[in-house]
Every structure is written in structure tokens, then in C-alpha cells.
Amino acid sequence: MHGVRQAKVDLLQIFYLMRLTRAMEERTRTLFLQGRVVGGVYTAQGHEATTVGAAMVLHDGDCIVPQHRDLGMHLVRGTSPRAVMCQWLARGNSPTLGRDGQIHIGDMHHGIVPMISMLGESLPVACGVAMTMKMRKRANVVLASCGDGATNTGPFHEALNFASVQKLPLVFVIENNGYAYSTPSYKQFNVQHLSERAKAYNIPGESVDGNDVLAVMESVGRAVENARSGAGPSLVECKTFRVRGHSEADKADYVPKELREEWLKKDPLKRFETYLEHEGLLSARAKAEIEERVRAVCDDAVHYAEQSPEPEAATVAEYVFAPDGPIAIVGESGADDPRYVNALDQRIGAPFSTISRTEEAISRR
Ligand SMILES: Cc1ncc(C[n+]2csc(CCOP(=O)(O)OP(=O)(O)O)c2C)c(N)n1
């Protein structure tokens, strides 16, 4: 049925990670309703096959540049459930030390670049990471995701163009859930499939059922291995549905009832569970064990976060500015040529020197 051939244990691990993703978000919603979450809650119920499937095909040393509905990718890459729960409860030991209550987190040890809140802006950053991998001749790949709404921004198109021209080891995954907040697809863009965008940049593009985890793994896996082999970037559109509102403050009553019901029948977890049972890979006992493991991990994460201290009020201004001042200081401190590139040069070192010398050579022509 699927070209993805995984050992039984891997398929059950995928199922576990999808279940964990959903359960973590359900816990967070409960905490939110109890008034224990600081800030809004943005969930991705319905995206689990896309987020878990896409990240599962990566190797150690690869990088993800996730968006705001990618808890599944974080969990696959190794972000701990405790850290995620501390983030949502804005604890002083959370990845952002309580400065942000959202999934705007990253961890370069796990190859996770923190997302930028402005839609589309993470994608040029993903190009930079992929360019670094290429310049350092590393056999690694970057996977960058965005929503359908983000594809209508300038940075999305700049990133696709740049990645194509530079043949970067980069895979763009679009999580097309049919809406950018309340704006439906037909009011956003005039193509049937967002994978058609790839044609304009002369890169491969394909659309896939984003609620079928094995189909996502097959399609994204192909794109990742192409990128790894030096064939350049690809675009994969995963068609899915956001079951809940944009955030918990949104009832999503702009989504027609029939459309919602149609998508609910395609629930990615239920579908994968049925597939595993049909293939004889998920016994009642294995399912119960997975449920128990998910419950225990969520209980532990919530307990750990609730025991963790809130940030100290006196430290509120810390970690907001770079400790040794802005780059512009290099110019003010009497450098011979106080231009931005030279400031970067001094601050960061050799790679920028090369770029600045190249720029000078070009500007003299
Ligand atoms: C440039 C920009 N405009 C508006 C917003 C506010 N905003 C945050 S998420 C979002 C909807 C994004 O839709 P989409 O890209 O389709 O992703 P989804 O939330 O559906 O997963 C909006 C409008 C923003 N963060 N950045």
C-alpha cells in the first residue's frame, strides 16, 4: 500500500508520537480553561500526521525550521514534554525563561531553529541554515514548514527563489489547512494546489494527503533524500485541516459544518490506528500500553511545570538585548570603515569577511 517500509516498532513509535502530540495539546487546553496558562493557546489537532510524519524522515544533524502548529515536529526531534509544558505555563526554567508562553521555541542541539512570529519570515532564515550546510559540505538537510497563509507573503517567494537559484538542501512543507485564521483558501490564492507554486521557481512540487502519515513520510522522505543528494530544494504541500480554532479564543464558526464533518472522518490518528490494526501491528494490549505511556508523560510534564518557579520579576529586562551591546557599536568605536558588513565581520568572523570582500569586488565592477 505504501512505499514507506518501517519496522513494526517504528510504526508504533510514530503512533505514540502522534498520540502524545494530541494529548499534550488537550492537556494544555484543559489548563487554559482552568486559567493556569499564561497567554493564548494555539493547537494543531488534525495536523499530527503532517508534523510527525514530516519530521520522522529526517536524520541526526538535519534541521527543522518549524511554524506555530508544529508541536509534533518538536516532540519527534527531541524537545522534552517537560520543556513544552514549562513554556506554556511560562515558568522561569522554560526554553524562553518565561518570556514567551507559546511554541516559539527552538533548540539548536536538537536542530530546531526557533520560529519567527511574523508569517513567512522564518523561511529566508531556513535558506541561511541550508546555505551554511552546503558551504560546509555537510550531508544534511533543512526542513522548513509554513501554513497556507504564509505562502502569500513576500519572504515565502524570496525563499523559494533563493533556494532554487542556490540549489539548497532544503524542503519546504506547506501545511495547508484551508484557512489563514478565518480567511479561506479561495480568498487567499488563485491556484488549486499550492504545490503549483514550485513551477515558478523550477523546483519539484507535489501535494499529498496531509492526514495520512505514511503518505506524508513517503513524499517528504523523497524530497529530503533529493535534497541530501545535492539535487536542490522541493516543495511539498500537505493538505490537512485544523480541527479547533486559530486559538482557543476562536470558535471557528466560519468553517462550514459539512466541511468540518468531512474532515473529521479523516482524522489522522483514527486513520493510522485503523491501518495498524488492519495490518495486525497494533494489538489491544499495545494500544493500552501506548495510552498509558502518553498519560504518564503528560502527567509528569504538567507536574514538573507546576512545581517549577515563575520567572523572577527583577529579571524581566534580562535576555532582551545582547549582553555586549548592538553591532552598530563597532562603527561608533572608531573602526576604520564603519559599514554594516565590516561590523558583522568584526563581530562574527571569517564567513562574513568573505562575503564583504565579494561584495566589494562586485561593487567595483
Ligand atoms: C505577517 C503576519 N501577518 C499576520 C500575522 C498574524 N497571524 C498569526 S498566525 C495567522 C494565520 C496564519 O495562517 P496560516 O499561515 O495558514 O497558518 P495556520 O495558522 O492556518 O496554521 C495570522 C494571520 C502574523 N503573525 N504575521
TrEMBL record:
A biological-process GO annotation: pyruvate decarboxylation to acetyl-CoA
One Pfam family here: E1_dh
Presence of the UniProt keyword NADP in the record: no
TM stretches of this protein: none
Keyword Oxidoreductase: yes
Every Dehydrogenase E1 component domain range: 18-313
Molecular function in Gene Ontology: pyruvate dehydrogenase (acetyl-transferring) activity
UniProt entry keywords in alphabetical sequence: Oxidoreductase, Pyruvate, Thiamine pyrophosphate
SUPFAM superfamilies: Thiamin diphosphate-binding fold (THDP-binding) (SSF52518)
InterPro entries the UniProt entry points to: DH_E1 (IPR001017), PDH_E1_Alpha_Subunit (IPR050642), THDP-binding (IPR029061)
Cofactor section: thiamine diphosphate
Protein name (Swiss-Prot/TrEMBL): Pyruvate dehydrogenase
Taxonomic source organism: Ktedonospora formicarum
